[in-house]
Amino acid sequence: MNENIFEAKPDLPSKKKSKLLIVKNFYTQYRVLVFSFLLILVAVLVSWSLYLDNKKNKEILLSEKYIQSKIYLEENNKKKGKNLLKEIIYENNLTYSTLSFFLVINQDLADNKEELTILFEHLLKNNKFSKEEKNLLIYKKAIFDANYINESDLIDSLKPILNSDSMWKPHSLILLGDYFVSKNEKIKAKEFYQKLFTINNLPNDLYKHASLQLSIIGNE
């Protein structure tokens, strides 16, 4: 029995040689593919690194542009501020393009409804927004549109929000209520204010605003 064990030992080096031979043959046969794969891997890693650096630098540049646009607006140079904000919007950056669009609305920089509509449609088409982000854009645009469009078009523009459970639904109802108050159409205003009270967990400030408006309408 011991003799058999000693006789088996010389087989071990031959097995190692066999494995080395297999590896050598594999390398010889596929070395071109191996080197090609390594080159492709290195190229991908370098490209990805350059992409990240470029993206980071672009973000920094856009943030500087956005800050500069706000400086122009603070200096009452609305033309330069607006032009810079429009540049940022067309850069199709989810964060800074959206912030720039909101600033155009909040500062009332758009010359007309058509100009804002073009910016709005470009923003939606060229950026991937979540449902609530998109609803916020619709709501913000409706605030501006309220000064230019008729009641039917305003309500239609807000329907995606009004027919949903969006967090911007209460704000949209307040906007419509206030819109009809400004038109002295109290019955329609009352209708939208009352709809607010069917919403669960209504923000306290919106509840107070609707209650106050209904109280004023009721006393007139």
Topology at a glance:
Elements: H1 2-8, H2 11-74, H3 78-89, H4 94-106, H5 113-126, H6 131-145, H7 151-162, H8 169-182, H9 186-195, H10 204-219
Helix pairs in contact: 2-3, 3-4, 4-5, 5-6, 6-7, 7-8, 8-9, 8-10, 9-10
What does this structure look like?
This protein has ten helices and no strands. It is mostly helical. Among the domains are: 52-128; 151-220. The longest helix has 64 residues, at 11-74. The chain is elongated and about 105 Å long. It starts with a helix and ends with a helix. 21% of the residues are buried.
Salient structural properties:
single chain, 220 residues, mainly alpha, 10 helices, elongated, disordered N terminus
Brief sketch in words of this structure:
By secondary structure, the chain is mostly helical. The chain has helices spanning 2-8, 11-74, 78-89, 94-106, 113-126, 131-145, 151-162, 169-182, 186-195, 204-219.
Strand content: under 5%
Distance between the termini: 114 Å
Q: What's the pLDDT, averaged over the residues?
A: 85
Helix coverage percent? over 70%
Structural class: mainly alpha
Count of alpha/pi helices? 10
What's the overall geometry?
elongated
SSE order in H/E notation?
HHHHHHHHHH
